[in-house]
Each structure stands twice: as structure tokens, then as C-alpha cells.
Write a structure and sequence with these properties.
Distance between the termini: 72 Å
Number of helices: 4
Shape: rod-shaped
Number of strands: 0
Order of helices and strands: HHHH
Low-confidence stretches: none
Structural class: mainly alpha
Mean pLDDT: 80
Strand content: under 5%
Helix content: 55-70%
Length: about 100
């Protein structure tokens, strides 16, 4: 084999090895980023975090009065005071704005 053939063979092996190494490194980086998640998603507040917290608070409130027999859990036909306790989107959405 001539010198040019050996040099071309060495260059070809170098390029192929570099491409395989680069592919493996990119696969490793992608796997690592998928495992930890993106930092942007962790910094932003979940769009429904207020709603979920409101549901948790309502659950805690209902759970506390579950065994209490003195609370009023029914309504008269003309009584609409329960409407004041309904959650409104402004109460739980970030910034009070609608989607």
C-alpha cells in the first residue's frame, strides 16, 4: 500500500470515529436534559397552580367539617348565599386574567 492510501484510510477512520463519538455525545446530552427537565419549565409557575391550590383548600375545608353535625349543608330555595362562595377564575388564575 502506498503512503497516500494509508493516509486516506487513516483520515477516513478518523472522520468516522469522530462522527460516531459526536453522535454518542449528543445522545448523552439529550438523555441528560430529558432526565432533569428544562430549567425554564421549573422557573415558570404552572398555569393552573392557583386552581389546584384552591381545590386543595376547598378539600381541607370540607374535610374539617365532615364530622361536624352542627354545620348547615343545605340551602333554602330562596337562599343564594352559596353563590358567594363559588370560585371565580380571577381568584385562582395568575394575575387574575382569563386564558
Amino acid at each position: 500500500m502506498s503512503f497516500a492510501t494509508r493516509a486516506a484510510d487513516l483520515a477516513h477512520k478518523t472522520v468516522v470515529s469522530s462522527f460516531i463519538g459526536l453522535f454518542c455525545y449528543q445522545a448523552y446530552q439529550l438523555q441528560y436534559q430529558m432526565r432533569i427537565g428544562t430549567d425554564e419549565a421549573k422557573k415558570r409557575e404552572h398555569p393552573q397552580a392557583g386552581f389546584i391550590q384552591m381545590l386543595r383548600d376547598k378539600y381541607d375545608e370540607e374535610y374539617k367539617k365532615y364530622y361536624d353535625t352542627g354545620h348547615r349543608d343545605w340551602y333554602d330555595k330562596d337562599d343564594d348565599s352559596y353563590l358567594k362562595n363559588l370560585p371565580r377564575p380571577q381568584d385562582y388564575q395568575p394575575g387574575g386574567k382569563r386564558n
